[in-house]
Amino acid sequence: MSDLNTILASIITSIRPSDTERHRLKTLAWRLIERINSIGKAEGLNANGILVGSSARGTWITGEHDLDIFIMFPPDVERQYLEEKGLYIARKIALEGDSLEERYAEHPYIHAVIDGFEVDLVPAFSVENAASIKSAVDRTPFHNKYVESRIRGLEDEVLLLKQFQKGIGVYGSELKTHGFSGYLVELLVIYYGSFEKVLKAACDWKFGISIDIEKHGIINHKDPLIMIDPTDPARNVAAALSLDNMCIFMDRACDFLKVPDGSYFHPGVGQPLGDKDLEYLISTRGTSLIAVEFEAPDEVEDVLFPQLYKLEDSCHEMLERNDFRVYNSGVWAKERAIVLYELESAKLPNVKKHTGPNVGTKEHASAFKSKYEHANKLSNVYICNGKYMVEIPRKYPCARKLVESEILKCGLGKHIGVSMKKKFNVMENLEILSVRDEGFRIFLRRFFDK
Question: Is pLDDT at 165 greater than 90 in this prediction?
Fold first, then answer.
């Protein structure tokens, strides 16, 4: 047996669910589905339950005690009816468990903990085909049918690919991660035939590579990786995947095939960054840190993180627009949310060169000279490289003052805007050490280590 096969055999043994684990999952799933069906029948709601996702397709990794159960309603009912009655059934079931929480994606659903399993109870429309969906979740049952009909005998290959992507940090299509979804992993294995063949193919991928298993795509997508949904010719399954995560996968795939090593399958456990470590990094790098901290809105990650990324990008642009060069940035959230920037320098000269129009543009030139004739300035208007120039006082020579004064004008997003308008705090350099949360300190370590 080759080194590669030895490694893969060892990994699959450690991640394949046991027969006992599978039995527990199936027993709970069918119990919940029967409960949904009985409630629907008893109350005349015309609703039935189905199991979807990796737990239904046999492509879940041991220890992942997650169940996705859909509560299906006829497609002709109103959305308000689906939400109201679907949540009614879901709550009745969830109240028999250990805990429940109402969450919201495109429409509300119930997240519950029942017998040690994380269970999502999701109302959906039972439409005839994926082209007729009334909400995004309606296509999931079609994914189930497609994968189930083709995955037999390839389940272990899917588990290996999922675990490899988890190990290198690119698994998960959540808007926090922008990685590979479970469905995308399954389709890659179906298309290429095995874990090893997916990795070999990835070494030769180019930006914009398109895979269309059913050869029925009808839209020209512009994403880094394009996997046309076999159940929906207009949809790219890989739309959430970022260019960087695609490239990380390509790079690690090639490295692994050259020198196989089991460590690729095991996510590194990040060590929190200590106080002395941050002091050393700031000193040796010679850069400045600016962090914005505020109360994290109580929203699911797929709602919260797009707003955090929007704020990160908008504030980044504001800093650059005011001549503060941004080296790195990132976001973190728990009970508090933090947007962090590493700047070349948080201090700039008080003087700023302001470029005017080209000499010879009469009206513009006249207006520029007139404007700065009596304005507050640190030089006369002069000519440099064919343009009028003037040196003026910089409005914000300090990045901290800029952020404190102007960040509420940035793109905040609905929920973050409400939180930040109540209160936010700007921290600089070692002031960031006041945040003692271990998760944030691990984020800080990764921020610098990449």
Answer: yes
